[in-house]
Amino acid sequence: MRAPGVVHHGTRRRRAAFRRAVWSGAEVLVTVGVVLLLLVAHQLWWTNRQARHSAERKVQALEREWGTPDPEASGTSGVSGSDADATGAGKAGGAGGSGGGESAGRSAGRDSLSGAAADGGRQQPRWSQAYAVLGIPRLSLRVPVAEGVSKANVLNKGYVGHYKGTQQPGRPGNFALAGHRNTHGEPFRYLPRLRRGDTITVETKTAVYTYTVDRTLSQTSARDVGVIRPVPRSTVRPSYGYTRPGYYITLTTCTPEYTSRYRMAVWGKLTSMRPR
Questions:
Q1: Pairwise CA distance, residues 166 & 184, whole Å
Q2: Which residues are marked as active site?
Q3: What pTM value is reported for the model?
Q4: Which of 146, 191, 235, 275 satisfies CB 3.0 to 4.6 Å to 154 for a cystine?
């Protein structure tokens, strides 16, 4: 008959220590998991909620500051008939091709757009100042435009930022903007949904400018500064862009979603303006 095994105190202590270590490790893993879930919830839900609320309030504040537009204001000054064809609003042209895009340079100086420079003489907006409202009907979007592309002071508030050194709305050249695609209000999340012919409005204190989407560059390098030059043209994919001066708008954001590795750009051309 075999004698029962003897369990020494040292063995029991080792087993107890092992159980404590396993339990402590499990607690740490659970805690880390909860913290990660909270961080994800903060980034994907809370920052969006806060930024959208901030952006909506700023849009309302700007509208109160500007006052209600007069519906009897003088009629729209813009491009119509042959002019619309010349700016590309009514003429097809692939990305990088000549077509209507090349004609934009010829029509940009016409008298029909001379009033579009009304805001150009006003004082330059202060850094991080919200001074315009960007509207994109297809995306049901109305968002403030602020000077600069600072994350902390502009983009993370849910605003769209104006690239320093690019033109102001309605001026000849390129009015270039940046916005988050994910988190912090994500105003440009659905930018890929824009199609040629969609309208983009930019409202300021004195005028409302309407641009028409013309071309899209679905992906390029984050360092492709050509897309925001006065005559926008990709330096990475030169077949995308323009070759002649005009009145352009550029919307840029990160791509693919939830990354910042690449950029996409949507270009449009000024087709009309009206005073507020």
A1: 24
A2: 180, 254, 263
A3: 0.72
A4: 146
